[in-house]
Structure formats: structure tokens, C-alpha cells
Design goal:
- By secondary structure, this protein is of the alpha/beta class.
- The protein contains 11 helices and 12 strands.
- Strands 8-7-6-9-10-11-12 form a 7-stranded parallel β-sheet. The chain has a 5-stranded parallel β-sheet with strand order 2-1-3-4-5.
- The longest helix is centred in the C-terminal third of the chain and has 19 residues.
Length: 316
């Protein structure tokens, strides 16, 4: 079996072994592949592995030998799945490999905004504390999480773990979810988005991006959020209107926006969020701990092996 990895660098820049895949077939690895290079590189492949490379119907039409597409991520919107299925091409993804890492990044953003750890660390290196007349100082609001309300949009594996940890900090948790209220874990109150906006001190997004929730958080929704509230987005950049977020940060209506994702990645240099000091943006790395990437690789190998044996798993 000829296996071609079209954009392997992001998931494995060299610190993880490819040996498991090499045992399953003839493996060719490209660190990155431009759109115009996809067909040429994949034309002899039985199986391709991708992360952010788009596999459209037009591309599939030019790959008659292709039998398998393995997406090295949980989201698989980069593949025209319907077109693949029509051609008998199996498509798989990697579910739940990064749950703990994304939850960790969610709270890293929450703590950074509420405790301003990076700000005070930088200021101390610059001599601010050494020059202070008292033993301590603070020049930002500091928030205790206990007793505050966390609103979660999307209650899958990640959303549920965020809720469980929030409870340990003494937070009340409300959630927007399609799950039945009676089946929710103890301590999570189901509500609507409208109900969530007015009660949450912090809102954290953990839902997939669909055509129905594009710019779910827009200027109108933000006006209904509590003054001084915090928004966290480790899900998908296009769930929010970035200009509306920037405007709300500028006015002070939002106290902070912590995000690991943006609508365009890499983002454009003139993105309005870059001019806002209370927008804290990490470069889509919540999933990228070594532990999560090793888990991703193991599941990828399992997916390819199961396909080769005629018993596909994690199909989408």
C-alpha cells in the first residue's frame, strides 16, 4: 500500500516516530503541500494522510487510485466527505486525542486573564516590583473563580472536562448543549444561548463549526453578555466575529478574550484583535502537546491498519 502524508510537519516536526506507518506500507512524507501540488503528489497513492490540506471533489476526480483519506485531526471539514463516499473512498478522523490538552489550554487562558500571570512576570523582569515601595502591587483587576459562573457552549468530551474542573474551583456551570437535561453530569444546568449570555462571568466555546453557528458570538450577542465578562475560544475561530470582539474589548464591555484559534490561520497582519491588549491569542497549539501528538499518531496507525485489514474504524 502506498501511503502519502501531505502535510506532516505540524503534527510531527521530528520528535515523534513514523515507524508505525512505515510498517503498513510504502510511506512518503511531505512537510507541507501547496494546493497546486496535491494531485501530483497523491496521484499514485492508495492512502493519503492530511491535516489542513483541502481534498475537494475536483481533487478526488483526479485521484482514481485513492482508496483512503486519513485526517490527522478531529475536525474533517477539509474533506468533501460526500464526494469521497460516492467514489468509495474511506475517510477517517482522530477523535478525542487532544481532550486533556485542550482543556488545559482553556484554563491557561482563563488563568492568564483572571490572574494576569504573563503581565506580572514581564513587569517583574523589567524592574517594576523591585522599584515598588510596598512588598506587593497590582495594576490590573484580579478575579477569584470560586462563586463565578462559567457558561459552556458545546458539551462534548472537552466541554464536560472543562465543566468538571470548573466545579473543583467552586464555579457554577451552565451549558448550551443538544444533550437532554436529565442526562447531564451533576452540577451542569442546561440553558439556551440567550439564557447563558446574561448570567455567565466567563463563556467558553467548545462546539464544532457548522453553517448554522458561523459568527455565533457577534456584536448583538456581545451586548447581551455581562459587562466585564470574559470569552474563551479554543474551538474554531469563525465561531466569533473578530471585529465585534475587538470593538467590545476597546469599549471595555469585554474584559478579555482568550483564543487559540482564529478565523483565518495564519491570521492576517491587520487582524483587529492584534491591536487589543486584552486579546490573548495563542497560535493554535492547544492540541500540540507531545503527549497529544503521540496519541494522535497511535490512533492514526490504528486507523490505517484497520482499513488495510478491511475493518475501518473512526469513519466519518
Amino acid at each position: 500500500m502506498k501511503i502519502v502524508e501531505l502535510d506532516g510537519y505540524a503534527a510531527n516536526p521530528g520528535d515523534i516516530s513514523w515507524d508505525g506507518l512505515k510498517e503498513l506500507g510504502e510511506l512518503t512524507i511531505y512537510p507541507r503541500t501547496a494546493p497546486e501540488e496535491v494531485v501530483e503528489r497523491a496521484k499514485e497513492a492508495d492512502a493519503i494522510l492530511i491535516n489542513k490540506v483541502n481534498i475537494t471533489e475536483a481533487v478526488l476526480e483526479q485521484l482514481p487510485k485513492l482508496k483512503y483519506i486519513g485526517v490527522l485531526a478531529t475536525g474533517y471539514n477539509v474533506v468533501d466527505v460526500e464526494a469521497a463516499h460516492k467514489r468509495g473512498v474511506v475517510v477517517t478522523n482522530i477523535p478525542s486525542y487532544s481532550t486533556e490538552s485542550v482543556v488545559q489550554m482553556t484554563f491557561a487562558h482563563i488563568f492568564n486573564i483572571t490572574n494576569q500571570v504573563a503581565h506580572y512576570g514581564d513587569a517583574s523582569r523589567q524592574g517594576r516590583w523591585s522599584a515598588n515601595p510596598d512588598f506587593c502591587y497590582w495594576d490590573t483587576p484580579l478575579m477569584e473563580l470560586s462563586g463565578k459562573t462559567l457558561g459552556i457552549v458545546g458539551l462534548g468530551h472537552i466541554g464536560q472536562r472543562v465543566a468538571a474542573i470548573a466545579h473543583q474551583f467552586g464555579m457554577d456551570v451552565f451549558a448550551v448543549t443538544s444533550k437532554d437535561a436529565m442526562s447531564l453530569p451533576k452540577g451542569i444546568q442546561k440553558t439556551t444561548l440567550d439564557g447563558l449570555l446574561g448570567v455567565a462571568d466567563i463563556i467558553s466555546l467548545h462546539c464544532p463549526l457548522t453553517k448554522d453557528n458561523y459568527h455565533l458570538i457577534d456584536a448583538e450577542k456581545i451586548t447581551r453578555m455581562r459587562e466585564g465578562s470574559i470569552l474563551i475560544n479554543t474551538a474554531r475561530g469563525a465561531l466569533v466575529d473578530e471585529q465585534a470582539i475587538a470593538d467590545a474589548l476597546e469599549s471595555g464591555h469585554l474584559a478579555g478574550y482568550g483564543a487559540d484559534v482564529m478565523e483565518q490561520e495564519p491570521p492576517r497582519k491587520d487582524c483587529p484583535l492584534f491591536s487589543q491588549p486584552h486579546a490573548y491569542l495563542t497560535p493554535h497549539i492547544a492540541w500540540a502537546t507531545k503527549e497529544a501528538r503521540e496519541r494522535l499518531m497511535r490512533i492514526c496507525v490504528d486507523n490505517v491498519r484497520a482499513f488495510k485489514e478491511g475493518k475501518p474504524i473512526n469513519e466519518v
